[in-house]
Design a protein that fits this description.
With 110 residues, this protein is mainly α. Helix content is 65%, strand content 0%. The protein has one domain: 434 Repressor (Amino-terminal Domain) (Orthogonal Bundle). Helix 1 crosses helix 5 and helix 2 crosses helix 4. The two termini are 22 Å apart.
């Protein structure tokens, strides 16, 4: 499994949704998501990768940065709250992503 696929699977798991529920939430057939994850993100359509990344609250560039970071050095990804109305759900998603990045750092130090 490629690194991008691993990251997407982890972020979906961290979202608290099943893969089926996540697929439905983002308007993707669950079978398409399952196929995308089993074959690897690199073999999926660009539109589907973008849809999944948007659903996870990340950009495709951020996915590439996370996946291409062979030495697991954390790159800065900022989410500013200045003068923006964030829903509780969006704030929780930001917190989950932050915890995901921290857990990667912790796992790589062990």
């Amino acid at each position: 499994m490629d690194k991008r696929t691993e990251i997407i699977e982890q972020l979906i798991a961290d979202s608290g949704l099943s893969k089926k529920a996540f697929a439905e939430k983002i308007g993707l057939p669950p079978t398409t998501l399952r196929s995308m994850l089993s074959r690897g993100v690199g073999n999926a359509s660009v539109d589907n990768v973008i849809k999944v990344c948007k659903g996870l609250g990340i950009t495709t560039d951020q996915l590439e940065d996370l996946a291409g970071n062979d030495n697991d050095e954390i790159k800065t990804i900022a989410a500013h709250h200045d003068d923006e109305d964030w829903t509780e759900e969006e704030l929780e998603e930001i917190r989950r992503f932050k915890e995901f990045v921290k857990s990667k750092r912790k796992n790589n130090q062990e």
